[in-house]
Amino acid sequence: CATMTPVHPNTSRVLPTVERNQVISSLKYWRASGEAVLSTPKQNENFGFRWKQSPQLQELSIYDPLGRTVARITVEASGAHLETITGEHRQARNLSTLLSMVLHVELPAAELPDWMLGLRGNTSTISNNASGLPNILRSGPWQVHYLQYTPVGGLTMPKLLQANGPDGIALRMAITQWQMGQAE
Amino acid sequence: ASGLDMLHHFFQSTHTITAQFSQEVANHNGQIVKKAGGTLWISRPGKFRWDYSGPNGQTIVSNGLKVWLYEPALQQVTVQPLGKALGSTPAALIAGNDDLSQRFNISDLGVKNQLHWLLLRPKNGQDQGFTALRLGFDTAGILKEMRMEDAFQQETVLHFTHVEINHAIPSHEFQFTTPAGVDVLSQ
Predict the structure, then answer these.
(1) B90 CB near a chain A CB, below 8 Å?
(2) pLDDT of A36-88, one tens digit each?
(3) Cis omega (within 30 of 0) for bond into B45
(4) ipTM, interface predicted TM-score of the complex
(5) What is this structure's pTM?
(6) With an 8 Å Cβ cutoff, are A68 and B56 in contact?
(7) CA angle, A63 as apex, B34 and B92 as ends, to 5°?
(8) pLDDT tens across B98-157, in order?
(9) Interface test with B, best of A40, A42, A44 (most B CBs within 10 A)
(10) Do the chains contact at B129 and A43, CB–CB below 8 Å?
(11) Which of B56, B69, B75 sits opposite A46 (nearest CB)?
(12) Given CB atoms, is B80 within the 8 Å cutoff of chain A?
């Protein structure tokens, strides 16, 4: 049987899904950046994003269409801190409180990393694709649809996903850049 | 001409602009964190098209009433009223018709690097999303560079080259046709 040797993420051989999920969930450092649009019945908000994950700190930067940072939320054990382009500073217990201040919508922020990584986490699977990767995941009132995947080294990663939530809220994310492991 | 005269002259006499643009965002350490470029068409007041080059390059089009923002990576177009969509971005500032001196305190910084510079500071603090805007005009009074600073100490720099002023621009440039397979989110 295939021994679970620690595989460096950028081998060209694409890992089968079980091994892929093990490698990804064991990653301590990763980054995802791209474009997103948050739609509600009232409005649509386009923004760029970058998520930086590390053991001690998570950081979410939100950009305007020009590429300027308009908000940055850093999350540590001690709590979450928001900084905005208008010079505002806020503290809160967690990411979702601050994220809803920036995006004016309630999102299950704690689940965003797993959504981006395409990991089931504590969701229930509605359907998988042929290679066993999620097609649709359900998490409470949210359904996460995986529209496109892309190979990143040996790992197949989400490229385009859309999370449909209550009250007609939808978050569509295109991840245009992945960085698995620590920045060289 | 004084800097202020150039600013007024530019906005009074410029009806259309076509140009290539390059755009860089530098972080507080001066490192370039985002580079982009493309072509722009502007027909004042209110109409513009910014085509960013590259596979994921956005297209932003305004017909003077609505703004289409097409993101190829998202395979989606969002349509918003002009006023709300791009409040303080360069596109709205250059294409806008309102008198900048109402929204900004304007001071003349004189000539540097062959450009005549003006400093615009938003009158009511931060609402424009930037703390300072610098406009650089060449000797012919044409806008060649815009520099924006914001509360994150980032600097967004836009260079304009191949600038053509008051040439006729076909009206279809300010219409957006949705590519096949792309859905439109309108309000």
Answers:
(1) yes
(2) 999 999 888 899 999 999 999 999 999 887 778 889 999 999 999 999 988 88
(3) yes
(4) 0.84
(5) 0.86
(6) no
(7) 90
(8) 778 888 899 999 999 999 999 999 887 655 678 899 999 999 999 999 999 988 888 999
(9) A44
(10) no
(11) B69
(12) yes
